[in-house]
Amino acid sequence: MKIIMLAILPLSIFAGSFNAPMQAYIDGLKMEAKKADSSFVDFDIVRGEKIFTSSHGGKRGEKISCTSCHMVNLRLKGKHIYTNKIIEPLAPSVNSATLTVIKDVKKWLRRNFNDVYVREGTALEQGDVLYYINSK
Amino acid sequence: MKKIVPFSMLMATLVFGEVVKPVDNTLYLKECGSCHFAFSPGLLPKRFWVKMMAKLDNHFGTDASLDSKDTQTLLSYMVKNSGDKVLITKIHSQRLIIYAE
Lengths: 136, 101
Description:
The complex is a heterodimer. By secondary structure, chain A is mostly helical. Chain A has one domain (about 1-135): Orthogonal Bundle (Cytochrome Bc1 Complex, Chain D, domain 2), CATH 1.10.760.10. Chain A has six helices and two strands; from the N terminus they run ααααββαα. Chain A has a two-stranded antiparallel sheet. The radius of gyration of chain A is 15 Å and the shape is globular. Chain B has helices at about 10-15, 25-30, 45-55, 70-80, 90. In chain B, about 40% of the residues lie in helices and about 0% in strands. In chain B, helix 3 (about 45-55) runs antiparallel to helix 4 (about 70-80). Chain B has one domain. Chain B is mainly α. Chain B contains five helices and no strands. The interface between A and B is medium-sized, with 12 and 14 residues.
């Protein structure tokens, strides 16, 4: 029991460290997720990783994933697959600007889910993937 | 032959064009410079920009949508600085023709 707790602890510390407005946004997503599924407890980094790394049909009809532009290692610079523009790393540990402004986070999640999944992300998916990015 | 002249064509127009003024609008640089270099509004006529901004959710096959307030703010800046003397033939880029009529 003790061992399991220790294993989980470091992840939950990271996942908890959003700034106040972002935390309020996450709490809103939690309420939405709970409404959609009453058994919902909390967002999950492992589910988020799957959302981030798996490939899908994509808006342009070719297989892409979040890692196509943001890389598998989120601490590295990314590259926009359609324009080759260099993208600053998504990991908050190396880029303190990410996941700090709700308006920008919402905008990019809407756009990027549409590009990869050809639909918007559910509250559960958005929360999971934000926990995953925030753990990096 | 119809060929799709890639991205670099507009850039070349910018570099070698005579009348294009540098982009000086912070919101424009942020929102139109995040996926690619921010093209100067002077590169295209007003009607191109109006049409492009009306369907940002399908912008060259990618979702570049913005809320309506920012869309409007950007469009007024773009229209004010648009290049209405730019000839379509000078643009060359076939895929921009969808915005021409």
